[in-house]
Amino acid sequence: MNDMFKPEDEAINLTEIREAEEDVGRNPSSNPTMGDVINRRFSRRGFLGGSLAVAAIGSTVSPLALMIADEARAEGMSAFSFTEVEAGVDETHHVAEGYDADVLLRWGDKVFADSPDFDPMNQTPESQLKQFGYNNDYVGFVPLGGAEDHGLLVVNHEYTNAELMFPNWATIGKNSEGKDKVLMGEFTKDLVDIEMAAHGGTVIEIRKENGKWTPVLDGSMNRRIHVGTEMTLTGPAAGHDRLKTNADPSGTKVFGTLNNCAGGVTPWGTWLMAEENFHGYFTGELPEGHREAENYKRYGAPAGWYNWGRHHDRFDVSKEPNEPNRFGWVVEVDPMDPNSVPKKRTALGRAKHEGAESVLNKDGRVVFYCGDDERFDYVYKFVTAAKYNPDDRAANMDLLDDGTLYVARFNEDGTVDWMPLVHGEGPLTEANGFAGQADVVIEARRAGDLLGATKMDRPEDVQPNAKTGKVYCMLTNNTRRKEGDENPANPRANNAFGHIVEITETDGDFASTKSSWEILLKCGDPSVAEVGASFSSATTQDGWFGMPDNCAIDTDGRLWVSTDGNSEKRTGRTDGLWAVDTEGEARATSKLFFRVPVGAEMCGPLFDPTGETVFLAVQHPGDEGLATFEQPATRWPDFRDDMPVRPAVVAVTKQGGGKIGMA
Fold first, then answer.
1. What's the rounded Cα separation, in Å, for the pair 159 and 196?
2. pLDDT tens digits, residue range 60-75?
3. Quick one: pLDDT band at residue 1, thresholds 50, 70, 90?
4. Does residue 485 contact residue 39 with C-beta atoms inside 8 Å?
5. Hey, is 71 helix, strand or coil?
C-alpha cells in the first residue's frame, strides 16, 4: 500500500482522498466571503429567486446587451431548441435526440503516424509520449489556413488515476474499521514515468470530412507536451532567486507543466495551459527556517498526492526547495510550431489556475480571466499593456509579459472593484515582504489577501461573452461555509452545489476597473426547499444541476455549463453539459444536452468556428466507488474486456448538419 497517503477512514479511493485533503480552505485572511457580501447586499431588499435587477444596473450595460435582452423578453422563450436528455447514472454517455456523439481521441490513441498501438498490459513511458495523454480537460481549436473544417485540436491532460491505468496494481481491501477501500500498489520509477508522460497536453491536426472529424496522424504540427518538455519562465519573476534550483541556477528554464485544467486560446492562436493543483506533486519537508514555508502553506504544498519525489529529486522540497515556485503559472504554447519552447507567463500570477479565457477589448487590448480553484480564493483578470495586432502575429507573441494583473472585490452595492496587484501600490510594499513585482506574482494569493479581495466559493472557469459585455464565473462549491451564512440569494451553509455569478463590465469595457455583478443561478435540486436553488420554473427535473465547473459561450452568444461532482449519491445524476438561458423571461432556465458515463467529469466544452460541433472532454470515467483497472465502474468508451476505461474527447454534431442547440 502507498504510505504516502493518510486519508480519513471514510475515503475509499484516490479521488475521495484528494477531495478530503482539498476540502479545507487555506485562506487565513479576514476578507469578507462572497456569502457575506451577498447576504448584506440582498437581505435588506428581499432579493427573490435569483432574478436580475435590470433597472439597478441598466446604466452600466452595453446597448447591444440591452437589445438582446429586450428581444429575448419580447419572445419570452428559450434561446435553445433540442429535446432534453433524461438525467441519471449508467455506464455510457447520452446526447440529445438528433445528435451524434463520436469518440474522437482516447487515452492511448496514436498522436503520430509512427505511434505504437495502445497496449494497456504493456505500457511504457516511451509509448505514452507518442500517445494521447490521460484525463483530457481543456479543449481548444486553432483553424489552419482560415478553414473552419481543418485545424489543430489542443487538449490539456490534467492528472492521472493510477488505480484505473495500471493492471495488477490496485486491489480491494479493508480500512481500520473493516470498510472496503481501494488499496494502492507500489509506485515504481517506470509507473511514475508513465504518469509523467501522460500529463501535459496534445496538439493534433484534425479534419472534418463528410460531417465527421478525424485525426490527421501525419500532421506536421502534431506534438505531445509533458512533464519533461523544456519551458522558459518569462515576465517579472523570470530569473528571480526564488525560482532558481540546482538544475537551473538561472531561474529561467523549467521542465514540464502539470495538472493543466482548463485553459484558453489567444486571439493570435496560441494555446494557454493553466497549471492548477501543482501542490499535490511535491513531497518532503522544507529545510528548517526556509523563507518559502509560509508561501507554500498558503498553496498547500507539499501535499504528497504523487510519489514522483521518490524517483525525481526536483519534486522533493527537501532537495529542491524552490521547485514549487516554478509551477502554478499560465503556460503559453505556439501550436503552429512543434519546435517552439513553451513559456510560463509569470505576469499572470501564480495560483491554482482554472482557465485563462480571453476577450479582445474595444480599445485593442486583450483581457484574460482566471479563477483560483480553491475554497475561499479569488477571481483575477489580466489586461495587456499593448494592443493586439491582427495583421502581425509575431508582434503579439509576448503580449502576456507586460500588463496589469487585477484581483476582484465584490461589493454589497452590486459593484466589483478590480484591484491592481502592482508592487508599491497599497500594501504591496517591501514592508509587507514584497521587494518587487516578482514577489507579488509569486505570492499572488497573499497579495490578494492584503488587498481585501473577496473570498469566493471555489472559483473555476471564468468566461467573457464578447457579444454582451458580460462575464460568467463558475463557483463550484464550498462545503466549508459555516452555518449562519446562508441566505436566499447565496449558496447555502455547507454549500455542496455552487452557484454562477454574472459580471457586467461597464459599457462593454472588459478592461474597466469597476464592474457590476448579479447571481445568475444558485445550483442544486429546486424541488428541495432547503437547498434554495434558483432555477426558473421552466427548468425540468432533468434540467437542474450542481457543481458548475467549466463553461463556454457559443457562436451565438449563448451560455453552456459543464459540471464536476454530480453523482448517484450526491445528486442522483452524472455530470454533463447544460444549456443555460441568460436573457429575458427564460433567464435561469437550464436544459440537459449531454451526460457522461458513471464516475466521469464533464470538461471542455468547445464550439468550433461554425457552431456546428461541440467538443467535449470526458474525464476520469469509471472513477466511482471501489473502481480499479480490473473492476472499473464502466468500460466506456470501448466496452471491451481487454480494454480499460479510457478518458476521451467526444465530437458532437447534429444529424443532417446545423448549429448545436438550434431547431
1. 9
2. 334 444 344 444 433 4
3. very low
4. yes
5. helix
